[in-house]
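Render this sequence as a predicted structure.
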Amino acid sequence: MNILQLNSSARGEASESTRLANRITERLVAANAGAKATVHDVVRNPIPTLDEAALQAIFTPADQRSAEQAARVVPADAAIAAVQAADVLVLAVPMYNFGVPAQLKNWIDAIARAGTTFRYTATGPEGLLKGKKVFVALTRGGKYRDTPADSLVPYLRTTLGFLGMSDVQFVYAEGLNMGAEVAQAALQAAEAEIAALELATAAA
């Protein structure tokens, strides 16, 4: 099993989403003999924002790219290769202003490439990143689960599903800015959710 963990919090090691994602990855490794984990922090090692230069480079055939264009697609190509090689993804996702962190959005923009990770067919789009399990550790300052204000879960389900990753499981830690007691209870509940996850042969 190849595990790809993506951290996207600006708080680094102080991040609760990172800590919860670490716990999921640790349990995956412990439950699956020979499992290997790769951790990528998209804040410390960001992927450039998708812009005109990037689009021109991507849509220029590889053998026709300038040196600058070839260099421009390297980070996105590496991100795509890492996802393609992974059996399981573990995403650490804090809520920032009702959205995902900008650096995580840049990563999603980088891996969503027509003809590579999805394609259009006569019957509609088809995701090409199939057969992968995704765990998402969600942290929020308030409580938004199962409310119209929770924009993250629909966005991630739709985007990941569009790319072929429809087996997505969320772990929630909410109310982290609503006082110490609420935060402690939320983190304990998240730990209990992680302990209850079925992680053995999760990639099967």
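Summary. The chain has a mean pLDDT of 94. The chain has seven helices and seven strands.
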